[in-house]
Amino acid sequence: MHIEIDEIAKTFGQTVALHPVSLSIPSGALVALLGPSGSGKTTLLRILGGLDYPDAGRLMFDARDATGLSVQERRAGFVFQSYALFRHMTVFDNIAYGLRARPRRERPPAAEIERRVQKLLTLIQLPDIGKRYPSQLSGGQRQRVALARALAIEPRMLLLDEPFGALDAKVRKELRTGLREIHDATGLTTVFVTHDQDEAMALADLVVVMSMGRIEQIGRPQDLRARPATPFVREFLSA
Amino acid sequence: MSDASAAPRFARREVTTETPLFRAGLILTVIAILALLLFAPLVVVFAEAFSDGFAGVVQALHEPDARAAIRLTLWVAAISVPLNAVFGVAAAWLITKFDFRGKAFLITLIDLPFSVSPVVAGLCLVLLFGANSAVGHWFVAAGFPIVFALPGIVAATLFVTFPFIARELIPVMIEQGRTEEEAALTLGAGGWRVFFTVTLPNIRWALLYGVLLCNARAMGEFGAVTVVSGRIRGETATMPIAIEMLYNEYLSTAAFTLAAVLAALALVTLAVKTALEWRFADQLAATLRH
Asked: Does the CA dihedral A211-A213-A219-A220 come out positive or negative?
């Protein structure tokens, strides 16, 4: 799905989280929103997912106005920084949640839900953990379950907030590859937020560098390295 | 410590503990205080109730007034606890999941019953809804008196027990944050579905504790209820009031029998709570640990 962000702005009380920003995300791209904390990247991601509403500007999904779409109508697969797995449900029930939450006439029968959940568990390479609770999983496993849960709703786009933030270096590298593979297999337009420039450079097709609620530069990883547009980008990338 | 014997003598003890003597002293002190303040009164209540033998207890429980008091107390608890469960969950949900102006004021308001004397609360209800006030007069004329009747007793109990459930829920809900609810929303669930499948299951243990506390207080409330009930024997006297009236009339077996019943009701709630905790130990661990 093609995403067009047109002069989107957001203020929380006295603080300006986003000055009007514009960004075009081509269908099927894997995009990184890169910047230090407080740069507005998470706010932008939450606006895409419908968890926050912009004060001004327009959002277009495939050339249709999506600014007023509710969070449920967006059908965005969202992976939260802390994963936000439902702690009182098994892994199976977590992944099945989105399918069971559908209106009755669109809800797949139980056997179909079971089949789809099992398929997703295989996709994240954890076929045997359906009966476990989130508290019984490692950080890396939780992250993958969160990804499977987001994929279960057959999302139109995948949004990830610091998806590898809480993991150690080795698991982080593995999951990076995993996300790339899942992206390539599904062809979903994917946006992830990170403050780690290595991660952004290694994973993304397109990197959006943000600072203080503004977009500093948009470009392919190698172009950003070769031609940083502002002193901020040069400094941030060399850090 | 498997290699304790190899360690030097002075390093035997872990840094976070005290000497055995000190620990024993602390434990004994706690046991003594518990025995004196909690256990002894309970024993005395039951001992006094049975001082005339089993027959005395049976006779005291056969009194119509005593039965009316037990029935009334159970009714008051059965009405006010579910109502306060709904109010408490609603208030805690509002305070922890939304940002709005006047939130601090609302929290203060919830705590108000803790700081206001129950007697004062009762008096306020009498002033508001008594036969001498305009509102109260209207209710009496409509054949539905509030004060000196069940509605007044329930209202007083509701006021006094209001903070228990909300106060139990708020810290738990703050700790759990909003992200699980947000995740459910992104997965397509509507507001009510999120509440019943995510929020409520996550707070069910805190809610249970709140309900038990609220129930205990609702059955034991004396001050506010004394003022609004008018203390009509057999009609508006709840168990605590009936106990006090019987005791003042030197009917100590009857008074202590009723007190024993009240204590037994509290012990039953405690037993239910322990049984549930034991039965659902896994779930409890999964919900609290994350």
From this structure: positive
User: What are A63-119's pLDDT values in tens digits?
Assistant: 899 999 999 999 999 999 989 999 999 999 999 999 999 998 989 999 999 999 999
State how far the Cα of A25 lies from the Cα of A29, in Å rounded to an integer.
Answer: 7
Q: How far is A71 from chain B (nearest CA, A)?
A: 6
Residue B286: helix, strand or coil by DSSP? Answer: helix
DSSP 3-state of A64: strand
SS3 of B132-193: the string is CCHHHHHHHHCCCCCCCCHHHHHHHHHHHHHHHHHHHHHHHHHHHCCHHHHHHHHCCCCHHH
User: Using the beta-carbon criterion (under 8 Å), do A84 and B183 form an inter-chain contact?
Assistant: yes
Print pLDDT tens along chain B (290 aa). 445 555 555 656 677 778 889 999 999 999 999 999 989 999 999 999 998 888 888 998 999 999 999 999 999 999 999 999 999 999 999 999 888 888 999 999 999 998 999 999 999 999 999 888 888 888 888 888 888 899 999 999 999 999 999 999 999 999 888 999 999 999 999 999 999 999 999 998 899 989 998 999 999 999 999 999 988 888 889 999 999 999 999 988 899 999 999 999 988 888 888 888 888 876 666 655 43
User: Interior CA angle at A198 toward A197 and A202, to 5°?
Assistant: 115
Environment class of B212 (CB within 10 Å of its CB; exposed 0-12, middle 13-18, buried 19+): buried
Closest by CA position to A30, among listed A193, A173, A198, A234: A193
3-class SS of residue B216: helix
C-alpha–C-alpha distance, residues A43 and A60, integer Å: 17
CB contact under 8 A, B193 and A150: no
Q: How far apart are the first and last CA of chain A?
A: 34
**Complex ipTM:** 0.92
Q: For an interface test with B, which of A48, A51, A70, A72 has the most B Cβ atoms less than 10 Å from its Cβ?
A: A72
Cβ burial of A32 (10 Å; 0-12, 13-18, 19+) is buried
Q: Tell me which amino acid residue A159 is.
A: L
HSE (side-chain half, CA atoms, 13 Å) at A140: 15
- Hey, what are B222's tokens? 């004396």
The DSSP-derived string for A117-159 is HHHHHHHTT-TT-TTS-GGGS-HHHHHHHHHHHHHHT--SEEE
Please name which of B178, B193, B194 lies closest in space to residue A82, comparing C-alpha atoms: B178
pLDDT reported for residue B10: 61
Distance in Å, alpha carbon of B200 to nearest chain A alpha carbon: 10
Of B186, B190, B289, the CB nearest to A78: B186
